[in-house]
Amino acid sequence: MTLDAQIETVFRLSPSQRKALYKLRVTTVEDLLYHFPTRYGDAVLVKTIATLQKGDSAAVYGTIGKLKTSKAFFKKIPMAEGVLDDGTGKIKIIWFNQPYLAKMIADGALVRAEGKVSERRKSGALYFSNPKIERVNSVPEHSDQSLFGNGVDSHHLYPVYPESRGVTSNWLYHAVQKILKTGVLETRTDPIPQDILAKYHLPSLKTALIWIHAPQKESDAVAARKRFAFEEVFLIQLEKQKERRLWQKEKSFTIEKGEEHIAHFTKRFPFSFTNAQNRAISGILEDFRKGLPMARLLEGDVGSGKTAVAATTAYAVVTSRPKGQSYGTLQVAYMCPTEILAKQQFENFISFFSHLPINIGLITSSGCRKFASKMNPHEATDMSRAQLLKWVTDGEISILVGTHSLIQKSVKFKHLAYVIIDEQHRFGVAQRKALVRGQARTNAPQGGERVSHPREFACCPHLLSMTATPIPRTLSLTIYGDLDLTLLDELPPGRKPIITEIVPPEARSAIYEKIRKELHAGRQTYVITPRIDEPDPAKEFAMQAKSAKAEAARLKKDVFPEYRVGVMHGKLKDGEKEDVMEDFKDGKINILVSTSVVEVGVNVENATVIVIEGAERFGLAQLHQLRGRVLRSTRQAYCFVFTESGGKDVLERLRALQEAKNGFELAEYDLKFRGAGELSGAVQWGVSDIAMEALKNLKMVEAARFEAGRLLEEDETLAGYPFLLTYFSLRGKKIHFE
Ligand code: ADP
Ligand code: MG
């Protein structure tokens, strides 16, 4: 057996167990070992069999016999049974669904069984159902005393694992213990180098695995968790920093445009830029001059004006000529997560750039457009994909806006110098890379320059990734370790803060009346339905869609019969989504009920109210982002945060929404107060819950970052650490697979 062995090759699994493990994201032996307990139960009483009573939770030491496997007659469930004898009495043991347990233990072995005592309905006989069982060498001393009074067993702490229907914590415990005993760990190199373990007093991989799954004492468990948290952050850092170093070895386009040049462009806007916008622009222009490819993340709340920063810096690019060429411009690619957004940004860019003699293209899966049209220099025109792509390849299109369609191999630029990714969190890492690296390969060699690179391409484009997702600093240091960070931490002046109200169940109808007043005054409302967590994305979409439709029907029937209610969800086709959005924009829909998975990122200035249902299911930063949808207007906006839970903790947490100055504050708050397992890091950020815990600890994150940098300083290619390279390539495959 190896660590990457599929779990079903090691354990015989029923379909329901297989499904449950899949849900728990356990597919290999290694996944199982890294499926950590979330907590440890209390120590359990050791009893003698004679003193056991129905309903007891207890541990018993004794010899086991009469082991056999069979199938429960009523349901064809595979089961195993045996009889435990401790000299004071005998008790039957039954395991459902875990027949292999009977094979792991030999008749006559001395064991410790721990679990719940049940009673046979007919005979009244007691039995242990699904106890944890393990071989022991001797009966601990204090359990002898339990013949007189009950002793508490200190064998080890009782791990409690995240379960899923079909797989119990107990099953997981036994499965992990079985794996640990096989010696498979001996084959595995510790991913953390020895000297680093020693420096930070971290337990070795093997010790830590034993400690985390069955610690003798609480402090062992804590040390083990710390180690795994460090390991994860360290490995992410190592991978990102390695990437960054590689990136910085590439050549890029040197763009020498200064502030005065830019001023010709910025002065055309009907507003003056915020200090934060100006700072961001200067930073990017500085990067452009260096000749190395920029890799920068622009993080700013919804409405902080990221588009203006993107457009201004794009201006510097499209007013630059390719090297050694007296015609044409360098090119810009602008990628959006949805067709709606791509179209909106295409229109925006036309309005920003129509005074320049450049062409702008739009490419989505449903069609292509080009500005300016030959017939009318003030309008865009539809054109065939082939025609548009030819223009892109010839360098005639200076700015190409699009969706994922931009990544396709058939899209080839002549001089792609600048890639902008909007709402970057909606894209996978692979997609980002495909756009930057893939397109770099298609770039024509720069004028006169011989391509002496061993690689196929001459120049890498600069990259600007934009996101409105506020995340804590320690998290961005980790997952964006390959990017430089610019914060847009200032909103344009004159925006009225959104009035946010936390609405407990009893205040619901009063709030509906308030909303009715807004609707009556001609305003529009978003209603966001609760988040539903479901590992299977197809199922999640279906469930979300159902709940949005139900809520829309309810609002129409019971609350706002006089208004038009529309629904938006992920099961709609792109064209349908667009129709709904158009209708909302045109005021044909008064209330738009939408799932949280569909980002309604478009500007509808007349929408001044947002209702968020099931708010307790969201992180604060996420709620903040959702409420940003009504920040588009100069009118007073309202956010009503509905919660079904009247709990004090929930209300208190939500109250932070009313006080926080920006999303980053809320992100830090989320991190600080989240319970383990909430705000699931694995899904959203690709980091585990244990690493999320670690991100509360800036010192640890900095140490991991420092060590990763030091390692790469000494061994840039990590040639001396082959197991790390294997690890990264395996992880790459896995991420790709998802
Ligand atoms: P986001 O950062 O969410 O992408 P946008 O770029 O869409 O924000 O900008 C939101 C709105 O704010 C737009 O209507 C834009 O014209 C406006 N805006 C951007 N910068 C400023 C500014 N400095 N002053 C006033 N309004 C601005
Ligand atoms: Mg935006």
Automatic annotation (TrEMBL):
Residues 507-677 form the Helicase C-terminal domain. Keywords: ATP-binding, DNA damage, DNA repair, DNA-binding, Helicase, Hydrolase, Nucleotide-binding. PROSITE patterns: HELICASE_ATP_BIND_1 (PS51192), HELICASE_CTER (PS51194). The keyword Cell inner membrane does not apply. One of its GO terms (biological process) is DNA repair. Pfam families: DEAD, Helicase_C, RecG_dom3_C, RecG_wedge. This is Probable DNA 3'-5' helicase RecG. GO terms for molecular function: ATP binding; DNA binding; DNA helicase activity; hydrolase activity. CDD domains: RecG_wedge_OBF (cd04488). Residues 287-488 form the Helicase ATP-binding domain.
